[in-house]
Design goal:
Strand order of the largest sheet: 1-4-5-8
Structural class: alpha+beta
Largest sheet: 4 strands, mixed
Radius of gyration: 25 Å
CATH class of one domain: Mainly Alpha
Number of strands: 12
CATH topology of one domain: Butyryl-CoA Dehydrogenase, subunit A, domain 3
CATH architecture of one domain: Up-down Bundle
Strand content: 5-15%
Distance between the termini: 43 Å
Oligomer: single chain
Shape: globular
Length: 646
């Protein structure tokens, strides 16, 4: 295997330094309440989410009108099978979406956008993503993390006036952070932006640039070196894709999302006006993370759309297919899968709508809720698609084109399985999301007791922290002993034929148990807590289930109060909560009874070659190229594959 030469521009950083960079980028303050944060602290604040928040009548009318136009476009102008077959979205489809205003769904009307709420933006993504997931990814990358959102949050008025009208109607944008050797560890970012008068000069290579192949505008994260008059650090820039020195070197191909316009982009001495810098120098990661707080909601939106489609196909197929004298749906082994898909789709939509409406209201800090929605949505959608393939049997493994060729309905079940797989990696892998959410969930503890376990703090600082921690825990710990979850009459407003109140009492009790478990772990492992990723992952997964249960119950009551399928919604919420409680109880058991320590030993021995003998008897079809491509700065050696849509 070829080794990757260490780029002279790539910073060499320790694990501690990398963590410090990430910590500096996160939002430090909690100026607004957070339902999920309180849940992890053992406080079930149902009042923050119930009654279910709602959009205004005017917002709903505007959203529904656009959805009707978008549905007509999807049904008449989008050929999902063609996109899958040709591995490319036809230019006329993208042009049609531009004319429809889909590029500006989230952009304010004063800049030529549609000004949709987060709720209706997500409904639109679910709709267009069901026609073809690559289209949903294109629109999401453009608006959720591309140029519009960072400028909305951090841009100057001049930048908004210049770029937002273009993004609303004509120009596609992309977000460029990842590099060939940099993913969730941005401290090692190698792309540089060197100040030169009233410009910056960009050099570097970016990988997996969704929309990068067709983009007109780019948000680029680059490292500004510290110098006189420049604080330096990772910084965000708006870059014209047509600038001299920008080369799209490759259009990447994937197992799913075959229409995705994702590439490798090289910058060689690209001059960017200082006026195109977003925010201040060194704010790039903070801008990226803040943008993702709501930007992450676009991904579970498409997961909800996928769940709805899985449910539709499972229902229709399982009613038509008979085995041993009755429809396969009536066989328990298949029926349980359908029940899981139905209940989980209901819960995912509940999580998405609740989080989105909370984002629109802006009364709550939803950074944890959005992260949980992304984590839970991506994991559960993948499971639902896998169950659909199993329900379909051999037909689930067969391609839609093959089914059509032999005279059967062309159901792309295997495609949705491939398309959904990336969601567990996109915008923060499941493993990274576990760590990100865990860090936010224990923030209250670190705020009062972090100095106690910080080796760099002095004895005086540790003593001061100890006194503060003593006061905090003296008030907090007694509240974890008892609560409304132990009173049989609690949450009686959720009793309507089917009784959901036991589930809400379970959430309240379990929230306190979760907080006690976290406190015990911190007391036991102290500064080693951050290395216990298996434990932290299970803590987060329990919180995700409790959040989903809360959302499902609140949504069921909301639908009942409006006379919209109330009994059916209660039944689905009840089924989901019963299924989720089984998963939660299992996760609690695995907090302390697991193979984490043994697994670490096996990993070390594996890396040392101790089990290399086990790999004998196979042929490795991989070639002998480098594991990570060389991304040294310099001019491109090939022609660009950039193809802007005009």
């Amino acid at each position: 295997m070829s080794a990757v030469p260490e780029s002279p521009s790539r910073p060499a950083v320790t694990e501690r330094e990398a963590r410090q960079v990430a910590e500096a980028a996160r939002e430090q303050d909690w100026r607004k309440p957070s339902f999920a944060k309180e849940l992890f602290l053992g406080r079930f604040r149902l009042d923050l989410v119930h009654p279910h928040p709602l959009p205004s009548d005017e917002e709903a009318q505007r959203g529904e009108e656009f959805l009707a136009k978008l549905r007509d476009f999807c049904e008449t102008k989008i050929d999902g099978a063609r996109i899958e077959r040709e591995a490319r979205i036809p230019d006329e489809v993208i042009t049609g979406l531009k004319e429809l205003g889909a590029l500006g769904m989230k952009i304010d009307t004063k800049y030529g956008g549609l000004g949709l709420t987060q709720v209706y933006y997500n409904k639109a993504l679910a709709l267009v993503g069901s026609a073809n997931p690559a289209l949903g990814a294109l629109l999401s990358a453009h608006q959720s993390i591309g140029v519009p959102q960072p400028l909305k949050l951090f841009g100057t008025q001049e930048q908004r006036d210049t770029f937002l009208p273009r993004c609303a109607r004509t120009d596609i944008s992309a977000f460029l952070l990842t590099e060939p050797d940099v993913g969730s560890d941005p401290a090692r970012l190698a792309t540089t932006a060197v100040p030169d008068g009233d410009h910056y000069v960009l050099d570097g290579v970016k990988l997996w640039t969704t929309n990068g192949v067709v983009a007109d505008l780019l948000v680029v994260m680059a490292r500004v070196p510290r110098s006189e008059g420049h604080r330096g650090g990772i910084t965000a820039f708006v870059v014209e894709a047509a600038s001299e020195g920008v080369t799209v070197e490759n259009r990447n191909a994937f197992m799913g999302l075959r229409g995705l316009e994702n590439g490798v982009t090289r910058f060689h001495r690209v001059r960017v006006p200082a006026a195109h810098r977003i925010g201040e120098e060194g704010q790039g990661l903070k801008i990226a993370l803040t943008t993702l707080n709501t930007g992450r909601l676009s991904l579970p939106a498409m997961c909800v759309g996928s769940g709805k489609w899985c449910l539709k196909i499972a229902r229709e197929w399982s009613a038509a297919r008979e085995q041993w004298g009755k429809p396969v749906a009536l066989h328990e082994a298949v029926g349980s899968k359908i029940a899981f898909i139905a209940a989980t789709t209901f819960a995912l939509e509940a999580v998405l709508d609740l989080s989105s409406q909370m984002a629109d209201e802006d009364r709550n800090d939803i950074r944890i809720e959005a992260a949980l929605a992304k984590l839970y949505g991506s994991e559960m959608a993948w499971l639902m698609a896998d169950e659909l393939v199993q329900i379909r049997g051999g037909r689930g493994f067969e391609t839609a084109d093959s089914l059509r060729a032999r005279g059967e309905r062309a159901v792309p079940a295997e495609q949705i399985l491939r398309d959904l797989r990336i969601n567990r990696i996109f915008e923060g892998s499941t493993e990274i999301m576990h760590l990100l959410i865990a860090r936010e969930a224990v923030d209250a503890h670190l705020s009062v007791a972090g100095d106690l376990i910080d080796p760099d703090k002095s004895l005086t600082e540790k003593a001061r922290a100890g006194a503060g921690a003593g006061v905090f825990y003296a008030k907090w710990l007694p509240k974890l002993v008892a609560g409304p979850g132990q009173l049989p009459g609690s949450y009686s407003e959720f009793r309507h034929g089917i009784d959901l109140s036991p589930h809400l009492r379970y959430i309240e009790r379990t929230s306190r148990k979760l907080a006690r478990s976290t406190f015990y772990a911190m007391s036991r492992w102290q500064r080693r807590m951050e290395t216990k990723q298996g434990f932290l992952g299970r803590i987060v997964d329990i919180g995700a289930e409790l959040f989903a249960m809360s959302a499902a119950c609140v949504r069921a009551e909301h639908l009942r109060s409006r006379g919209e399928h109330g009994r059916e919604a209660y039944q689905l919420a009840d089924a989901f909560c019963r299924q989720a409680r089984i998963r939660v109880d299992e996760l609690f058991g695995r907090l302390w009874a697991n193979t984490d320590d043994l697994d670490r030993k096996v990993v070390r021995n594996t890396l040392a070659g101790g089990y290399a003998w086990l790999e004998q008897g196979i042929i490795d079809p991989s070639d002998d190229g480098p594991w990570i491509a060389d991304a040294s700065p310099g001019p491109s050696t090939g022609a660009t594959v950039h193809r802007p849509i005009r």
